[in-house]
Amino acid sequence: MISKQHFLEALEIINKMFPEAHGELNWESPFQLLVATILSAQATDKGVNKATPALFERFPTVESMAQADVAEIEQYTRTIGLYHTKSRNIKKTAQMLLDWGYTDSLPQDKKQLQLLPGVGRKTANVVLGEVYGIPGIAVDTHVERVSKRLQLVKQEASVSEVEEKLMKVIPESQWISAHHHLIFFGRYHCLAKNPKCEECPVISYCKFGQERLGHDI
Ligand code: SF4
To answer: 126-148 pLDDT, tens per residue?
Structure first.
């Protein structure tokens, strides 16, 4: 397992590799970010960004989405995986927000957000961090993979164990930025299938990469 100090050193290098790392979903209101994030589960941000302009033009607000026919929402989301379930969840989420009295904002409480259909820990963390700057670390597939390859956690660790460990090791003031940096590092460098170990500036911290190259040579 990597030590806290070495992980933070590696993270510092990763930060410098992607100083501009940021959320890549397009949105113009807190509700739109919530919808886009629900749609992005097991899908790419690019795919979501292709679908959401037309969806948000047709249903721009919480009120309009709450009144929408699910079948019509699906016409806009059908290019995205699991769109049946996600479309139903988006409508129900809009209805619940309306019931709670949220039209221009969102609950700023992680537990309350997770009561919304299709909203788990990751989505709640993303939305609260992006919209309200509330510290959190959203563990998506990239953050999980990088954390495991750098041996911050055991390979069998659950997503919430990865999140807990990252929150323990990284200072709270850096949670939101670290989450963006780790996502960019996983998405563009430490790829799932072909990680760029040959040109990786953190390979000295990464047994996975060292062994992989050793085996390749
Ligand atoms: Fe990822 Fe390879 Fe770098 Fe390790 S050495 S962090 S596996 S790219």
So the answer is: 999 999 999 999 999 999 999 99
Residue 215 has pLDDT above 70, yes or no: no
The total number of structural domains in the chain stands at 2
Considering the domain architecture, whether residues 144 and 203 belong to the same structural domain is answered as yes
- CATH code of the domain covering residue 15: 1.10.1670.10
Domain boundary among 84, 103, 132: 132
User: 125: CA distance to ligand 1 center in Å?
Assistant: 26
Domain that holds residue 34: 30-132
Does residue 140 have an active-site annotation?
yes
User: In 10 A of CB 182, how many CB atoms?
Assistant: 29
| Confidence grade of residue 6 (pLDDT, cut at 50, 70, 90) | very high
Known active-site residue 216: no
Cα separation, 45 vs 29, in Å, equals 17
Q: How far is the CA of 113 from the centre of ligand 1 (A)?
A: 34
Q: What is the pLDDT of residues 44-79, one digit of tens each?
A: 999 999 999 999 999 999 999 999 999 999 999 999
